[in-house]
């Protein structure tokens, strides 16, 4: 590894500077090759996953005390997501190139968490509950994705690299074994936070309107990943760049700067 072997790191850095080859051409802790897969491409049993999602009670996702607009917004989002689960052009899962690992990530989860105020002290951390895998549909998609990626790793070209599955472990093969393992091992975020100030109708719990202006606050815009109502099937940086370009034009137009 570049981070643990100084001799190897120096050799590879020299290779990069001389011919632009080697591991330094790969993004640190990530990679330059990823795939985003629709649910029908992940498993032929995708309809049963959709049926499972439709059968879930909302009380398992949100408590009865939740603000009604939040619940209405989630219902609207769920309808869109279930439609995307049937699509062969809308991705629900990303497989990345993590150098020494093969991360599997959900990009259209149905689980939802919460962020709540913990104190009147503004410096006191909030109470954050990711609510990860609160909807079992997400768990089933992860397991189906894991099986697909195992098949990919088992292909002859990949086997030439002698990969070894350490997590969750090749000895875990049944769905029940994988359900237990994934619940214990899954990380609730993959460093692409978004969607906390969603551009949606205020009646759906939205925070900004179609002009990216915060409801009830004059002149305040939100121009970052938090305005996305759903996680995009891409890395969020390029999407933020596009939003920022559009927002700059709208702000300049409002202030007659164009």
Q: What pattern of helices and strands is seen along the backbone?
A: HEHHHEEEEHHHH
CATH topology of the largest domain: Glucose Oxidase, domain 3
How many DSSP H or I helices?
8
Mean pLDDT rating: 91
Major pleated sheet: 3 strands, antiparallel
Could you tell me the radius of gyration in angstroms?
Answer: 21 Å
Strand order of the largest sheet: 1-2-3
Structural class: mainly alpha
Query: Which regions have little confidence, pLDDT < 50, spanning 5+ residues?
Result: none
What is the terminal-to-terminal distance?
51 Å
* The CATH H-level homologous superfamily of the largest domain: Glucose Oxidase, domain 3
CATH class of the largest domain: Alpha Beta
Shape: globular
What descriptors fit this protein?
258 residues, mainly alpha, Glucose Oxidase, domain 3, 3 domains, 38% helix, 6% strand, globular
């Amino acid at each position: 590894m570049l981070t643990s072997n100084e001799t190897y790191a120096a050799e590879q850095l020299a290779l990069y500077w001389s011919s632009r080859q080697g591991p330094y051409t790969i993004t640190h802790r990530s990679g330059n090759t990823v795939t985003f897969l629709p649910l029908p491409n992940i498993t032929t049993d995708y309809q049963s996953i959709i049926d499972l999602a439709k059968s879930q009670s909302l009380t398992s996702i949100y408590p009865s005390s939740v603000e009604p607009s939040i619940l209405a917004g989630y219902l609207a989002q769920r309808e869109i997501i279930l439609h995307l689960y049937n699509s062969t052009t809308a991705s629900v899962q990303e497989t990345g190139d993590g150098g020494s690992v093969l991360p599997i990530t959900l990009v259209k989860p149905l689980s939802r968490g919460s962020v709540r105020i913990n104190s009147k002290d503004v410096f006191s951390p909030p109470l954050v509950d990711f609510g990860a895998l609160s909807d079992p549909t997400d768990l089933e998609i992860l397991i189906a994705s894991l099986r697909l990626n195992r098949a990919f790793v088992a292909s002859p070209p990949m086997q030439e690299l002698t990969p070894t599955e350490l997590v969750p472990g090749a000895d875990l093969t049944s769905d029940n074994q994988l359900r237990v393992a994934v619940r214990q091992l899954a990380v609730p975020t993959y460093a692409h936070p978004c969607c906390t100030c969603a551009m949606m109708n205020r009646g759906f719990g939205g925070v900004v309107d179609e002009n990216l202006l915060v409801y009830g606050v004059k002149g305040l815009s939100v121009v970052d990943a938090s305005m996305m109502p759903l996680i995009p099937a891409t890395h969020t940086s390029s999407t933020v760049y596009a939003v920022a370009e559009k927002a700059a034009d709208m702000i300049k137009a409002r202030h007659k700067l164009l």
